[in-house]
Amino acid sequence: MFNKKIVPIKLRLLLPVGFIIIAVISIITSWFIYTSIKTFNAQMEKNLELEVRTISKMFERESILKLKNVQTNLKVANQLFYDYPLEILNQNIIIDVENQKTGQKHKASIKRWKHNNSDLYGSTYFVDKTQELIGGTISVFQKIDSGFVRVATNVKKADGSRAVGTYIPNNSPVVESIIKGQTYYGRAIVVNEWYTTAYEPIVVDNDIVGIVYVGDKEKDLAELKKILYTLKIGKSGYPFIFDKTGYQLIHPTHEGETWSDSSFLNPIRKANQGIFYYQLDDRDKTIAFTYFEKFELYIGASIISKIENKELINDAIIGASVVGLIAILFLLGFIYYFTTERIYKFIKMLQVSNKKLADAELALKQSEKLATMGQISAGIAHELNNPLGVITMYSNIILDELKEDDPHIKDVKLIVEQADRCKGIVSGLLNFARKNKVKPQEVNIKEFIQRSLESVVIPLNINTQVVIHTHDLIIMIDRDQMMQVFTNLEKNACEAMPQGGELIIEVNGDDKNMVIKISDTGIGIAEENLDKLFTPFFTTKEIGKGTGLGLPLVYGIIKMHRGKIDVNSNADSAAGKTGTTFILTLPRVF
Ligand code: ADP
Ligand code: MG
Fold first, then answer.
1. Are strands 501-509 and 462-468 parallel, antiparallel or unpaired?
2. Is CATH 3.30.450.20 the classification given to domain 1-79+220-325?
3. Which ligand does the CA of 545 lie closest to?
4. In this model, does residue 3 exceed pLDDT 90?
5. Atom 18 (ligand 1): residue with closest C-alpha?
6. pTM for this structure?
7. Distance between CA 75 and CA 214 in Å, rounded?
8. Taking CB atoms and a 6 Å cutoff, what residues make up the pocket around ligand 1?
9. Which ligand gives the minimal distance to the CA of 553?
10. Which residue's CA is minimally distant from atom 16 of ligand 1?
11. Nearest bound ligand to CA 541?
12. How far is the CA of 489 from the centre of ligand 2 (A)?
């Protein structure tokens, strides 16, 4: 029953605090997830850019190696060329020549060359043999008016036939170098494709009459594809190669397509490298790119960020949520525990003060009861006083008039005696009723106690002792009323010690109160009677001796003095010495 009332209070207290905790931790958790994803995405983009740079480095290295290779090959080809005897006949041949760039054709005249004792023009022997050794493309050129023409070659035209008759025009950088007697290295368009090339002049009698050429396809797409296809970036990413028109040279799924839309072309035209977002196949791709100038190609790498960070998002959400939840539970538990403690304490305090209030209420009722009793007593006493006076007076007169041997004398004595007893009861009632009015005055407590003891008949077998522990003996009390208190308590004490004993009155006190203990070594008060002591007419004494009005009167007077009366008593000799102590606590100033 107790708990049912507490739980909702605890919950009500917990609810706003709990709500704030949940909100704060949720915000922190969300923020953590958000920044994790942001950091992850930034890292992904960095990785992507690094990837294209790495591929670009790879290309760079490849092209350097290729050039070196071609240089070596040129030496080999040159060596082979001059190993065979070369004979230049004084005969001219008219051949068809074709500008490999413009496609223009015309006739041209060349000297007839015999190489290894057979016609070089259109021969395959030297070039094929050299190719067996070094690979790549090999050509021998002869000088014509408009440039140098291929006379023996394994370079193929678009139709697959050998490119014999195609020529390099005089205005090409190759020819510009060759006619100066220099070897030319570099990139060159050979028929249709870019090659890493090397050209060495053939000099006869100080005349540059031809060229030995070796070359290797620069963009060996098949080889590049092989490498690039194996490169995976994250889960969804891959590298790809495209040119400035958006044409996809190497792409795992879109090879051969041209992405000419501005959202693709604009970013790559703006800078040589960078990163941008592009929608492809309804997916948001992040693309990093870099321009590889030598090949005039772009290296790209793309990922789908959503796929890449999906797992991370899941992990982050689960992880952060678990941590968040634990934090929430921990904090809630913490707060729940502490609020509970506080509330329990608070409720206990309330219970204590409730009990005090209830006690006070009970005491108030008691005093009201006594006050009412006082008033009733006053009425009864006044009513009884006059008839009793008459009975006492006449019975005394009759007693006086009776002779000593009169047989009625015993009965009349009884009437006188009983009438006196009634008078005692009535005067008790009157005193009880009179207690309402207190007339306080300064009294020396030591003298006062002495006086009270003198007015009580104390049997010889009872020792009295007054012990004073306080320096200030002055107290404000109603002398007459307080005298009743003391004499009543002293009388009761004596009556409790029919076999004799000690009557000790002890005075203690502080600035505010005086505490007076009236103790006896008498028979004590049975426990079941303790709470009836102050009830009017409660007495354990035989009829004629006790009225049961002494302690109610004492109680009333003490209360009127704003004091307090307590009883300690032991009636069980088995539990120790028997006896009773009445403790009066009285304010010094009324
Ligand atoms: P009465 O003395 O006329 O019986 P009181 O009101 O003075 O009436 O006391 C009520 C009862 O309280 C007594 O009958 C007695 O049982 C008990 N009592 C009071 N004082 C003492 C005491 N000092 N020792 C033992 N019992 C006492
Ligand atoms: Mg008494």
1. parallel
2. yes
3. 1
4. no
5. 492
6. 0.47
7. 9
8. 488, 492-493, 496, 520, 522-525, 533, 538-541, 546-551, 580
9. 1
10. 540
11. 1
12. 7
CA distance 410 to 399: 9
- Residue nearest atom 26 in ligand 1 by C-alpha distance: 525
CATH superfamily of 84-217: GAF domain (3.30.450.40)
C-alpha span between 504 and 580 (Å, rounded): 11
For the chain, residues classed under CATH 3.30.565.10 are 441-587
Lowest mean pLDDT among 105-114, 185-194, 536-545: 185-194
Tokens 């796929």 found at = 307
Distance 466 CA to ligand 2 centre (A): 21
CATH number for domain 370-433, candidates 3.30.1360, 1.10.10, 1.10.287, 3.40.50: 1.10.287
Distance CA 409, CA 401 (A): 10
Where exactly does CATH 3.30.450.40 map onto the chain?
Answer: 84-217
d(CA 94, ligand 1 centre) in Å: 163
Three-state secondary-structure class, residue 545: coil
The answer as to CATH 3.30.565.10 being correct for domain 441-587 is yes
Under the banding of pLDDT at 50, 70 and 90, the label for residue 219 is low
> What local confidence, expressed as pLDDT, does residue 295 receive?
75
Q: Which two tokens stand for residue 208?
A: 């540059």
Distance in angstroms (rounded) separating the CA atoms of residues 187 and 193: 10
Distance 546 CA to ligand 2 centre (A): 6
The 10s digit of each residue's pLDDT in 438-460 is 789 999 999 999 999 998 999 99
pLDDT digits (tens, 9 = 90+) for 301-359: 998 877 777 777 788 788 888 988 898 889 888 887 777 777 778 888 998 999 999 98
Range in 230-244, 422-436, 569-583 with the lowest mean pLDDT:
422-436
Compute the C-alpha angle 246/251/256, nearest 5°: 55
pLDDT for the residue 370: 66
